[in-house]
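step=predict obj=PTS sugar transporter subunit IIA n=678
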Amino acid sequence: MSEPFIIAATGCPTGVAHTFMAEEALIQAATKRGIAIKVETHGQVGVENGLTREDIRRATGVIVAADKDVQAERFAGKPLVDVGVSQAIHDPDALIDKVLARAKEGITSTADDDTDAMDHDMFATNDDGTATGGKKVGRAIYKHLMNGVSNMLPFVVGGGVLIAMSFLWGIYSADPESEQYNALAASLKTIGGAGLGLMVPVLSAYIAESIAKRPGLVIGFITGMIAMQNGTGFLGGIVTGFLSGFGMIALAKALEWMPKSLNGLKAIFLFPVLGAAIFGLITVVISQPMAAISTSMQDFLSGFQDANPIVLGIILGCMCAFDMGGPVNKAAYVTGVALLADGNYQFMAAVSAACMVPPIVIAIACTIFPRSFEPGERRAGWVNYILGATHITEGAIPFAAKNPLVVLPILMLSSSIGAILSLLWHCGSPAPHGGFLVLPIIENPFGWVAAIFIGALVGGLLYGAYMTRRMHRLQGEKTAQPSPSRTHSGTPAPVAVGSAASATPNRPDNGGQHRKTESPSAVLQTAAQPSADSGDVPLIVDTTITAADRDSVLREISQLAALGGHITSADAIMAGMVERETQITTAQTDLIAIPHTKNAAVNHPVIVVVRTPEPVSWTGDKPVRVAVGMLTPDSGGNTHLKLLAKLARGLVKSDLRTILLNGSEEDIRSAIHKQLGD
């Protein structure tokens, strides 16, 4: 078999963070193993690093790591692994192993258990006749829906912000009959309105495109436009998207009897004409009951406009956060806009507050609990400050979609608090949109801002606490019960975190000998700033530890660094290394791992090498016997990158790996010094 060449396609619903995290994880994993790889990304800016026909032709296998449509039909006949984007981030090596195994066994995409069961048949079966299963159908529905949401979001953001900007010149600045009229403001509102007006058709079109490709795209646009014009809102976009997609697949099957020589006629004439007529008429029929749902909710809300502020606030908060831009949210919003004509500004202010809270909840959680989120999630979360401030609720959708049963109640509670406080403090908004950009015309602006941030802060704390607990559960952390230290007799002894002088007596081994470090001066001079270029980084080596799992090894590294006085908090270092392993495992394929963290609790760069008598299970059940821990200060510039680069180059050499696995502590120390000094 020739040298393997893997191709991959990644894409997440928003096309911002996870798309590129998955790309990086796959590239790093393949590079470490000497495997050539090319990764195509489907982000918000479009397809980058696109796969050519030649790439596909010569590929050994294909990895599709996406929660949206990435045109996987291109890879028919190739060994294919199709998973969600997060799986590529957390365990890329397993995906590489799987696709290589399938290539070796000659299993192609037509018989791949992981391929999308709904691309052409909702009730598809595998080649052996077994059903693909409910989970596969559910994931396919989610993928189609997220393909629509992903393509819709830029229209929502662009249109919503431009409309908000138009209110800077006044609430009636787009009305030619008003004294506030401004031509630029009117143009901005027109452009923004056009963007938002395309939201439902685009959602419908790209759900259908994910299911039925270009024929579905065309009919999805048409039916989505009908749904929007008939007042069905967000709900209409979802229903018509799936209707058009699956409907076009059914139509294609119904026309299979036609000779292949007429395929061109079908594509250019029969599909658009018959599809538009059939599914357009169905949309017209079902639009009325869908619109009635929205209208009934609006009438229901109008009856509560003079109700108790707490009751009304709870209703508005729950509706606005329930589907964040969906039909329930839009019913509350449209009711608020309608009541503006009656001079009820407080209702609109409460609706706006409830709509602005969810994205700010996400942003606050990512700010207060940064370690509970992956780096890409944090970056996407912080963007929600801007989205929330400009009244764009949809920024919270990707976060809520991961666990709606937990996250949606938190967001609904938060929005309710914001709406209740806005009503109690008699805040009023004559503007139907704009967020904080319309503060100059808000009645009681300070109370309104306070209501929004109090609601968002409560939700941010709850959501952050949930994510922290979830992270700890997934990682199996037991930070409340750190592993006890050992004495030479095997009896546990307490660990002191502080200077080397005070800590060392608590942790002797090997017949009473203290842990061996590079030199006493290197251990005690914690104020020094060793250079990664000169090889004078303090080095701690211990080949006598016993550990049951990955976290036990990481805890040993943290405590050894604390004993030497190189760090100020063993728990912080432990958490930093665990977080890094959760993102992308550092375990190699030769029983060696390189855990590392860039952390404010590190006084200066230090390397800690530990070895266990037997391999322990690492992330993804990889066996690891030697862990080379690299700890660098948060303000250490690119020191950690230099250390990583030098050690990674050295680990390619079999002699260094052999020494780490079998050599004495002195041999290990000498070999690493030599590698860092080269």
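step=describe
The longest helix spans residues 263-302.
step=end
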